[in-house]
Every structure is written in structure tokens, then in C-alpha cells.
Amino acid sequence: MDEVRVIVQAPDPVTHTGLVSSLVSHPGIEVVPADGLSEANVVVLCCEELTQAEFAVLRRSVNSTSLPVVLVVGVLSEADFLAALECRVVAVIPRGVATAERLRQAVLTAATGGGVLPPSLIGEVLKHLDRLQREVLIPYGLNSAGLNTRELDVLRLMADGLDTQEIAERLSYSERTVKNVIHGVTGRLNLRNRSHAVAYAVRTGLI
Hints:
By secondary structure, the chain is α/β, with parallel strands linked by helices. It has helices spanning 13-24, 52-64, 78-85, 100-111, 119-137, 149-159, 164-171, 175-188, 194-203, and strands spanning 4-9, 29-32, 42-49, 69-75, 89-94.
């Protein structure tokens, strides 16, 4: 990416000017107008706390472009943080330590698919994932990718080159069951075909 184009949203003109000034001092960053969502790569949202108004801004951004968001915030509760993650917030910078360099690095990281979180929030993410695993996935026999043991078994045998009949014989399923499993996986994960399903499973470390 030659240049990262950023939309800045702030609670007041003075804060907005300061954020813009911090960003444009980097030769690889350009700030575009608020109505330029189609041109932007990253959204920077600054606020004291995440109110309903800020969440509305985040949801509009997600619904229209799915741009990654860098959040500069004064106060952030655990509940608001987890809700923000669902709105494509990939970087969080506490306002008290929001230097120009931290802001620029967060924007550049977000533009390349990365994330930046304070250590305390990383701990919250890990606790949330642990609760998700214990309370939602494990009781239904699922893993973090939303696949159950039967689906993983079929994917592994597909990766070994077995066809539907051979997979059915190996797992003592009917061929219809195997086809249904494959159809369920490809449909739920938006995969094109069996080869795509195997490639996805290998790439994500599922098999």
C-alpha cells in the first residue's frame, strides 16, 4: 500500500486538528474528508467514552465499508471494549498516552491488517475467548472456527485425497451424511468447493 488514507472523527475541532496534524506529518498517511469513506483505508475515532452516538458511527462505518478502526479513547469499560471489537475496532490508544508516533503506528498497523491493544485489554480478549470456549463452543462440540469433530474428521480425510465413498467407509457414515457435512462446512464458511475447504482448513491450522 503506497499511501494510507484516513478519516478522522473527533468530538471537537481542536482535537480533530491535533489528530490530523499528527497524522499528516507522516509522508505515507493522507487524511481524507469525513464523506470519503469509499476512498479511505482506516477510520480514526476519538472520544472520551463510547456512547450510543459513537457506537452509531462505528456501526455505520462497518455497514458501509468494513474499514478497520483506530479508537483513541479516555475511558473504556470491558463491555464497551468487547462491543467495539465487533465494530471492527482493531487498535485502541488511551487518550492519556496518545502521542503522534503511537497514533501513526496504530494507523499503519491497522491498514495492513494488524492490531494494537494495551496489555490490559489483551488480557480482556483472552478472558473473553476463554469464556466463549467454555460456555459456547465446548458444550456443542465446536472449536474456535465453529467446526465440530465430525466436520474436522471429514476435512482431514478430504485432505488425504479420499473421495466421498472412501470417507463414508472410513468413518462408518452414509455417503449422504458425508455430502451433508461437506455442504454444511462450505456453506457456513463461504467456501467455494471441497478444494477450497481443504485449503482453508490447512491455512488456518485446523488440520
